[in-house]
Design brief:
Blueprint (H helix, E strand, L loop, with lengths): L1 H16 L6 H18 L4 E7 L3 H15 L2 E9 L2 E7 L5 E10 L2 E8 L5 H15 L31 E4 L2
Parallel strand pairs: 1-6
Antiparallel strand pairs: 1-5, 2-3, 3-4, 4-5
Amino acid sequence: MVNQKRFSLVALAAVFATLPLSGCVALVAAGAGGGAVAYVENGGVANFYAYYPASMNRVSIASQAAFADMGIRYNGEIRKSPTDYILEGSTNEGDTVRVTLTFMATRVTKANIRIGTFGNKPLSLRFQKLLSQHLGLAASATAPVGLSTPQTNTPAPSTPPQQPAQETIPLQ
């Protein structure tokens, strides 16, 4: 909380410091300050997830239907592995929408959504609600007890370390 206030003050000071400047320099500095404020107000970069008691194919189809309901243009699906799909789309405002589906068990799929640069909780919650409606199932913010990702014969891809300010938050 203190860091957020301090960061907001620094961003505000940066905006005021650019007032005497003219032209493009002022616009660039103001844009940087505005981005910093948006980052602070949102609490950093956030992904939102929920667990669904359904197969990945079923959740993928329902996700595409939820995209359509929200006016999100569906751009396609990437199948990274048999246990990981990525669905991509874009909003009318040009924000990227990425839903990562992870196969957790025979009938459990984790859906991780990120809308825009920093994550958009209201839209993510709306997506989760629509996805639950299309599936006819309630989502859960926690994985079923004793659940682990199934082992496949393919080697696990190396994942880059996550940025410390990035959060993955369960949808509520």
